[in-house]
Amino acid sequence: MFKLGLQPDTVTFNTLINGLFIGGKVAQAVRLFDDMVREGYHPDLITYSTIVNGLCKIGCTTRAVRLLTTMEETGCAPNIVTYNTIIDSLCKDKLLTEALNLISEMTGKGIQPDAFTYSPLLHAMCNTGQWEEVITLWNEMLANNCKPNVVSYNILVDAACKEGKILKAHDIVERMIQDGVQPNTVTYNILMDGYCLQGKMDEARKVLNSMMIIRGCVPNIYSYNIMVNGFCKYKRIDEAMELFREMPQNGLFPDTVTYNALINGMSRLGRLSAAQELFKEMSGYGLIPNLITYSTLLHGFCMNGQIYKALGLVKAMQNSGLKPNIIHYNILLDGLCKIGQHAVARELFHRLSFKGLQPTVYTYTIMIKGLCKAGLANEAYELFRKMETNGCLLHSCSYNAMIQGFLQNDDVSKAVKILHEMVSKGFAANLSTATMFVKLLCSDTTGELIHEICKQC
């Protein structure tokens, strides 16, 4: 444009800035905005709104707030969209006081907050269990003639369900209807999920079958996935399959999430042939198995002692272009240890670094348990002591595994020594460890020794 002797205008800059943000080139967009101002061009409301939105999306809320002052100084008054964008970002940054102050500021300037202004605040307060503050804010909305919308109510319903207060969630839905706001599919999905979290699958099914139909809400893929996952979690696999077959009749087709839930459900029940069939079926429908799919089926094989199929699955995973992560290897190591293949597990463990993987505290705990089970408590202890050296901080689960290992191998003295160390670091014995010590204290042969050692605590 400059070579042709043409001068860009504000619309040109707005288009370019927006395009750069869409393309993820945030730094270039901000630099272009700065150049625009420096060259004497006057950003308009669209320019500022675009920049504010972009800055908030990348977490630069402080600079976005400063732009409000710049807008005022240049005679470009922020509108409700600008304020709402920044308030939402402040809430995501957990700066609720600053968000509330900004609402006061916009109200003072004659800009009336709407439901979208209050929604992020409600969400942030609900997430932290500030119900009294939620009620105060809700009353403030009503006092400002701001009618809560379906999003506002859904936030409250979701918070109540997550706290296990399903009756309270139902009351909120009833109040919602009384206030003339119709629940939507999201509302009922939240309710179903709330029931599933409590294992009340029959009640969740009623929401799907009755309430959504009565209210004219059409179930979506998320509705079915919530139910399928819930039934699988509580080992009601036949009902999960019934819903699975029902989906196409309602114009919905299972996705990877649906198949993952079913594969997990089948695997947990030991129905591995059915799990494998589902795995093949999803591939046949063009759905690509993801890391979760593989880890789910891998866990099923290992849990049922089919280690060779598990190893084959890892190979198939690699051939598909997916790189197994430490979670997959943890599952494999655990499976190997459980069937007594400690030598193979040890070799695989030592090869992890060559695969570019860092063992986690759970990896070490699996190996410690496996070695102790094989009567190799001293080797397990060496590995336990290498954890911190290898950049893996000791954790309650690794301490408990080591203590239990020594107790299983009748080395009470070392077990108590590790127990003292664990307690000094602020960790506590778990139920299994405590039970083993209680049994020792009650035994005739070692009770006296344990009493003597415990006096040192």
**Please, how many helices?**
26
Compute the number of strand runs: 0
- Please identify the structural class as seen in this structure: mainly alpha
Radius of gyration: 29 Å
Question: How would the global form be characterised?
Answer: globular
Which H/E pattern describes the elements? Answer: HHHHHHHHHHHHHHHHHHHHHHHHHH
Oligomer: single chain
Mean pLDDT: 89
Q: What gap, in angstroms, lies between the N and C termini?
A: 81 Å
Low-confidence stretches: 1-6
How much helix is in the residues?
over 70%
Sheet having the most strands: none
Bin the strand percentage. Answer: under 5%
Description:
The chain is mainly alpha-helical and 457 residues long. The protein has helices at residues 10-22, 26-38, 45-57, 61-73, 80-92, 96-108, 115-127, 131-143, 150-162, 166-178, 185-197, 201-214, 221-233, 237-246, 256-268, 272-284, 291-303, 307-319, 326-338, 342-351, 361-373, 377-389, 396-408, 412-424, 431-442, 447-454. Helix 7 (115-127) packs antiparallel against helix 8, helix 9 (150-162) packs antiparallel against helix 10 and helix 23 runs parallel beside helix 25. The model is unreliable at 1-6 (pLDDT under 50).
